[in-house]
Amino acid sequence: MSELRRDPITHRWVIIAPERALRPLKPAPTPPAPLDPLSGGNEHLTPHEIRARREGAGPNQQGWRVRVIPHRSPALRVEGDLSPREHGPYAMMRGVGAHEIILDTPEAHSRLSGLGVPQLTEALEVYQERMLDLSRDHRLKVCQLSRIEGSGWGVTARHAHAQLIALPFVPEEVKGLIEGARRYHREVGRDVFEDILKATLADGQRVIREASYVTFAPYASRAPFEVWIVPTRNVDRFARLDRGDLEGLAEALIDAARRLEAVLGDVGYQVVLRDLPCAHAPAAYFRFFIQITPHLQRAHPLAEVGVPINPIAPEEAAGLLRAAAGLERPREKMETR
């Protein structure tokens, strides 16, 4: 079983999962296999489903629209007690949690950019269902939902899906986001996300798309072509979105994916939901958002001292993504410096 270990200096937790070493670290750059084990009709090739949206068919059969299965090589498992313990400066506990795959569509070799709004909206509803269900487990403190698109990042499944990991602790990055928003509200007396949107829309240079969600390149982008999708109204938690909200989010996600692929091609990128922890009280100073980070370059040496270097100004990146409104590839692929 995997183990959770905490660094005694930064208090950042890591998952030690030796069994995942059997997975390929970098898949060979071969075209997609003719058989997609995650598509409809291949249910016998996956672990037994946890949840599915379907009409008339039984479990683990064809006919589903959105399907949830356990990860075949889970980093964490839901069975067992945490058994926390300490040894000198070190803290550790058993690798208890959840690691699920949510399949957005039964269509083989699919991608986020190719989904329709109704299909992705239904998938987003299932994301909500699974996060709410896992949040009822008192051992689990936060649900981390992400997806990886395109090449790179160690992608082994080219099928539109999200990964949901529930952790028995709140990662330092999540704590930092929430504490930073709380501090801004305490010191300035306003919602930092509201101020960010006002400044971004007033300036206009970093805006990519404006609707019920604003898609933009953040002012202090840590990576080239980093994109945020932020709701225009104050919604602190993803689970609070209604059907109309989810449709707007689906439109924004699909649009962002198409723009990134039009400009960058098949470069891999990660989509992460930034949300409140499970048992966190409602927070007027925070709102959930989507962060998209393309995988364009290796870490610069200065990244080792905690100073990211972004070689492409967010204003330039946003301009190129705005220009991709027609969603056609530029004459030459954007050079990643």
Description:
With 337 residues, the chain is an alpha+beta fold. It folds into 2 domains: 168 residues, HIT family, subunit A, CATH 3.30.428.10; 154 residues, HIT-like (HIT family, subunit A), CATH 3.30.428. The chain has 5 helices and 14 strands. The strands form 2 sheets. A 10-stranded antiparallel beta sheet has the order 3-4-7-9-8-13-14-12-11-10, sandwiched between helices. A 4-stranded antiparallel beta sheet has the order 2-1-6-5, with no helix packed on it. Helix 1 crosses helix 4.
Structural class: alpha+beta
The CATH homologous superfamily of the largest domain corresponds to: HIT-like
In which range does the helix fraction lie?
Answer: 10-25%
Number of domains: 2
Q: Could you give the topology of this structure?
A:
Blueprint: E1 3-6, E2 13-16, E3 51-54, E4 64-70, E5 85-87, E6 90-94, E7 98-103, H1 117-135, E8 142-149, E9 161-167, H2 172-188, H3 192-203, E10 207-210, E11 213-216, E12 227-231, H4 243-264, E13 269-274, E14 289-294, H5 314-323
Antiparallel strand pairs: 1-2, 1-6, 3-4, 4-7, 5-6, 7-9, 8-9, 8-13, 10-11, 11-12, 12-14, 13-14
Helix pairs in contact: 1-4
